[in-house]
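Input record (one chain):
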Amino acid sequence: MSKELKEKIALLNDEEKYQEIVDMILEIKEKDRDFEIISEWGRAENNLGNYKKALEILFSIKEEGEEDSLWNYRVGYAYSGLENYEKAAEYFEKSKNLDPDYAWTYFELGWNLQRIEKNEEALNALKKAVELDSENTFALAEIGDIYEKLDNYESALEYFKKAEEFGRDDYWVITHIGWCLNQLDRDEEALEYYMKALAGEEDNIWLLSQIGVTLGVIRRYEEGIEYLKKAEELGRNDIWLNSELGWQLARIEKHEEAVEYFKKAEELGRSDTWLYNQLGWNLGVLDKYEEELEYLYKSKKISEDDVWLESEIGWTLRNMSKPEEALVYLKKAQELGRDDAWLHLEMGLSLGDLGKNEEALAELKKAEENGDESIRLYSTIAWNLGQLNKNEEALKYLEKVEKLGRNDIWLYSEMGWNLDAVGKTEEGEKYLQKAIEMGRNDSWIYSEIGYSLSRNQKVEEGIEYYLKAKELGRNDVWLNSEIAWSYDIIGKYEEALPYLETTEKLGRDDIWLNCEFAICLGRTGKSEEAIARLFKAQELGREDDWLYSEIAYNYGRLDRAEEALIYLDKAEKLGREDVWLYSEIGWNLGTLKKYEEGLKYFEKVIEMGRNDEWIYSQIGWTLAKLGRNEEAVENFKKAVELNPYDSWIEYNLGRVLRKCGKFIEAMEHIKKSAEIGGYEGWTDLELAWDYAEIDEKEIAKEYLENVEKYLDINSDAVKEDYNIVKSLINAMPIMFS
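The corresponding structure, as predicted from the sequence alone:
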């Protein structure tokens, strides 16, 4: 080949005008085409991608070429183009043996050896190429590619980075650097490389997908989803994309959408345990437990002895209110080696749901020992302690929960309930009111506040809350009993009775109910019914001084003093020795006209410290019956000092003052009784008597006439006194001045 032709071909190669080279060579007469020209022709055909033609041309000079490095290189290149990598490697091997200093031969040899998976030999050849040409970015990148395929990402990254340093910053190298960084968990750096690669590749589905997944790894889920959805818009709709979208959507709690993508992956043929577990978990978060179980059971069919799966099935069953079944799976997870706080908490929750609170607490304490110091754990421990009536301990855990930041309806409700249970009802009410302020508006909260108030001497307010609970639909034995009891406490016995009747209709028929009935019936004048209830309570097993006292009280109100005294005696024999008992004995003895005996009991009561208008008025009345009027006056006056607004006391004080001949003073008290009211007719009779005694005949007559308006003057109670007063008036001379 002439020097001139050689220069022309070199220039055309530099300009990549390969077809012109072919055309120029074809213009040369065949006989004038030497080995070198034909070899250049083969090279040009290679560069045009006409590999078969190139081989045909090159093999026409085989005899001369076999010992020529460039000829072997070009034959190898043609075979490589035809994807006959083994044959290509054979010729590149010959070429490098004939010219061991040409770097590109080693590159091509390494490149083709990699294609037939002779990676070690390929690496040796490529490293030799780099040794001969340290800035050979193709060789550096190819070495990186081999290391990447061998999962040696550190080495791969090293060579890709070298290629980048020497100017290779094309899409292929940049994305491979990103990939290696991903595999080395250097995802922030990986993202930077992918973003570099994105310039001009905005519609590259693979790259958009890779950016999306990398953003997901670094928890920038919203952005990750955005890139993945771009890939979807560009037409990607495969298992991987739908699975990844589902996973990232789940991370930002878009569980409905996550389920949609997971189901698309299932429709496209994915049927592995990962997908079924993801579907199950997301459905569980959405409280779709039945559907969740379907997927978890599918997963179980293809994945036996999976700790997470057994745990999740247990969790789901517990949330479906199937704690017994849940425990079977949770115990299986335990058998498979799970022994962490989560498992013990779940087992504790299930046991608690079954009412096995002691066993539940044992599991919950294990969760605590395993490092769980969560609000949920301490809340659950507190709840179980409450169920066991260990309210003081429960409160300690609830206080921990509050310090950890829980401040919701549940906490305030539990705090209130447990404080009530230990008698701290005032504090309990404050917590319960907080629960209402936060929006709780059900019968339980109003019932519980009612309880707090009623035990905190705010019974009337308590009743209001109980009635609100009733309005909201609660109508059980407990609530009706509480309302009745509260009305009893404030002395509204009539109001209590309908609630006791409702309680009885709802099935309560115990000692408490019958005793409560007796109290309310007795205090509303229905003593016969009260006694019947008390005897029923006795039949049910009550046998104490209170019962006998109540029976006695009601017999007394029926004027059956002898029977009353029998039961008062029984109460005393059972140990009752108080003011009330001896007051009742004294009162009933007086009813039987056993005034001396009765007086002894009244005096005993005074010695025991009773100091009220009742006892002094009763002593006064008894002394009057015994004719000890001066002493009677003294006691009635004490009674008046203690209660100046009692008509009966004023009336009786007036009577005994009259008997003592103190008519003016007597009239003052009788008039006071008349003002207070309640003894109409009787006060008129007394005033008539007093005026008659002081010779005020006309006034006496007026009062005596009033008697007939109010009283039957022929009755045994009135007749004798009426006639005495009348005779006094008639016997009095009318004096004229």
